[in-house]
Amino acid sequence: xxxxxxxxxxxxxxxxxxxxxxxxxxxxxxxxxxxxxxxxxxxxxxxxxxxxxxxxxxxxxxxxxxxxxxxxxxxxxxxxxxxxxxxxxxxxxxxxxxxxxxxxxxxxxxxxxxxxxxxxxxxxxxxxxxxxxxxxxxxxxxxxxxxxxxxxxxxxxxxxxxxxxxxxxxxxxxxxxxxxxxxxxxxxxxxxxxxxxxxxxxxxxxxxxxxxxxxxxxxxxxxxxxxxxxxxxxxxxxxxxxxxxxxxxxxxxxx
Length: 255
Description:
Layout: H1 4-13, H2 20-38, H3 40-49, H4 51-58, E1 59-62, E2 67-70, H5 78-85, E3 96-97, H6 98-104, H7 110-113, E4 117-118, H8 121-126, H9 128-135, H10 137-144, H11 152-162, H12 167-188, E5 198-203, H13 212-219, E6 226-232, E7 236-239, H14 247-254
Parallel strand pairs: 3-4, 5-6
Antiparallel strand pairs: 1-2, 6-7
Helix pairs in contact: 1-4, 3-4, 3-5, 9-10, 10-12, 11-12, 11-13
């Protein structure tokens, strides 16, 4: 009963290695069993709420036919395939995947269908800035209250994206980031663990420009364990590891 996103992740981590046929068979078994376990009604729900992910999962390249096909066709109900293949009449459905709305409806008309939209937590963060601009900050803050199971780096990078434009959304993302980091640290602290024993060395050179916020957010749960923080670019230099303990401190390290 895992959602399509989880099955896609599983498919992506099955190694091709030296035995691509074996990998394909493993993927086939996973998809086939998942389709059987989920059942038609749940698949119809996913076809509306996770349309893009389900299409990626069931729409694959056929070497023999030299084209993309629905797979495995024998185990997926035709009604589900019809929903995935045909354009959706947004005025006649009760639910729709947000990514479908984004790809088919102009921003200025989002408000007409937003009550029907199913937001995955990741989509909500990815489009937080656009949503705040079109539907207002209060709408996004309210939706963020129910966003769960995301890692600290996702909240942090989304916060950076909206920080200068939408302060209410940025503050909510900051709150969620701090909570996630705190919870992660609690899970790290185990009996017998020696605190302040880590020397953390981070690359902050130009090559890291696109991912430096994400990296900082990912290591921040370890902050209380760090005794020495070293950053390097053309040269290396020591920084106060306590800066990793706060959003403002991390921003100072990155600027």
